[in-house]
Amino acid sequence: MTREINVDVFFDFICPWCLIGKRQLQIAIQQLKQTHPDIKVILHWRGIQLLPQIPMEGIPFDAFYLKRLGSTTAVRMRQDQVRQAAKAVSVDIDFSRIHRMPNTAKAHSLLINALKVGGSAQSDRLLEGIFSAYFHHSENISDSAVLRKIAAYCGFPEDVIDDILDQPSIPFVSADTGGKGVPYFVFDGCFAMAGAQPADTLYNAMLEALMVQG
What we know:
Layout: E1 3-11, H1 16-35, E2 39-47, E3 59-60, H2 61-69, H3 72-87, E4 100-101, H4 105-117, H5 120-135, H6 144-153, H7 158-166, E5 184-187, E6 191-194, H8 199-213
Parallel strand pairs: 1-2
Antiparallel strand pairs: 1-5, 3-4, 5-6
């Protein structure tokens, strides 16, 4: 008999740790499939904005991080740390190519409404597409034209895309992470885990959630 485990993932598109955490979660799910093939993992992507105050047109990326971290040395050290963690899960992030820090309300709005009309595989392609547009192709994901192109590539009909993008973009702010930031994982509503945890840690968390199910 097939059993299910629900995993809520709170994330933001501008957070590289969220992309890294997504890769670690994918590895953990593959591990679970090998050891427990009767378990189906259902993912619920919960978009929140780390920086809802950013204007819709975005702000200069380098200036943002210099102000946030205080010095070019601190920025370089933080980016080196992220790049090393990303490389461990075969993700290449070149911060030098990213020019703007975008407001992500419109991207989150696109995804949450696309989830209502598309299948899980198609919606995951959209999620990946938005992450890739920002971190790999340095595109402005607060731009409707960029989001329309990504959604079309993922197979969403143009009229559906237009309907979604015409809806108001509201801040996606959540208190559900308890101030722990993102990525933030909730396993079957039983317990939560913050940060881009290693795949083994996420795998064991899913096993513990299954034990609680009984």
